[in-house]
């Protein structure tokens, strides 16, 4: 009995101090069994004890094998449901947010235009009403009086009356089909060239840039606490909280639009405070990726990530034109439909399976060893937060090569935010309406969809089957070339003087859509499965930092480009090209670790 207790204690200590080579830097040394004793009695006792211990270890190994088999079977059962619901959630979330963008931009532009150029709301100068009047009956005067005066008086009057065109619905400011349209809540849409002036567009870019920054702050603040709660409560509760916060944030923005005559437009920034509930978009994305990584084996992970990115872009391709088409009738229609879609996404979380228990390596009796039940819950959370911060610190300090690759995602995010201003850029540089620009952007979304669903899977198959590449090597090369395509696309868009060249640039830009998915897949393959949650949390944190900086930075570059005019309007895309260049350089410099540093599954 004493020997079994000691063996179990040793087993518990080994489990608690287990470190993956990528996380701790060096593999855990094994205990030597070749030590000899000069005492025969001690040698016999040691041999007997070692035999019993080995038998116990064999029993524990069998239990571990059975637990691993059960866990693998459970993953196989949950995999279809998790993947399908994850794809559905991504589609609904992006559909709701994407439909919201065209009407929100149009409303914000009109509000700014009214404030900076109030003359756009004034009616045109009054003109005579075209009424057919009879010719004046002027009696003939004596011959001593000149008759040229009546002719010079009546000619201009009759000419102005006959040549005056009547007022129509197209020019009437009060007409619903004219340049000014009034809607519920005091919302007024103004379609006037004055609203495309640099002062209006620059202020709009500033508002949206800082809105993006404020939307990222909840993800930075909530990364650690919600990461802890996801380990304690599970992925699903945190995912549900995040969607509730996003929906409340969108609803508050609509509230500001409805009372735009009373509330200043910059109060939409306070909508980001609602995303403190759940951490906002970054936490939601991290939970979805983590849940998928929990149930999908590494060899299939890149393909699933491609599918997730494809659904994301497919939803964008539908959402933009749909929101722009509804905008033609009433801006409130796409706004309310978008909010309804987000509510449906919240309800979908109720059917989302929990996956946090799939990587719980410790036994139930070990989970409570050394933990007092009378410790307050707040103290436990603080202690857990310190442990998570210590794990992240150890991860960063011990895996410099891996963190170096993660930096590439930061610059990818810095560059990819330029996609958020493509809509505004199109309307300003080419004079398109918001609805037309939304339709043209389907070129990029369609190209990205083809890239993720056809081109990248074919390239992945060719690299592994024909060229014999390993999975991680294949992901690295695909990420490198995707980065090059994004550089070419950004520079082409920046130099595009017309819509045709602009469409070509969008196509090149779309060919690089897989850079984030391939890099994520590579990073997830470089760590053991029970560290995937920590890795994705750290990736989400670093991407959020990148988005926080990219919003004001690219908005400022757009404002400078608008002030300079001409080809300098494409300055944001030149800036994005530089960011993509840094990211791609990191990927080309990065080298995969040697075989001794890769996670190796123990042999049975």
UniProtKB/TrEMBL annotation:
Keyword Transcription regulation found: no
Localization (cell): Membrane
Keywords, in A-Z order: Membrane, Transmembrane, Transmembrane helix
Annotated TM spans: 238-257, 269-292, 304-329, 335-353, 402-425, 445-463, 484-511, 567-590
Acidic residues biased stretches: 55-64
GO CC entries: membrane
Location of the region described as Disordered in the Swiss-Prot/TrEMBL record: 1-64
Comp. bias intervals (Basic and acidic residues): 8-19
Name assigned to this protein: Major facilitator superfamily domain-containing protein
UniProt organism field: Corynascus novoguineensis
Taxon lineage: Eukaryota, Fungi, Dikarya, Ascomycota, Pezizomycotina
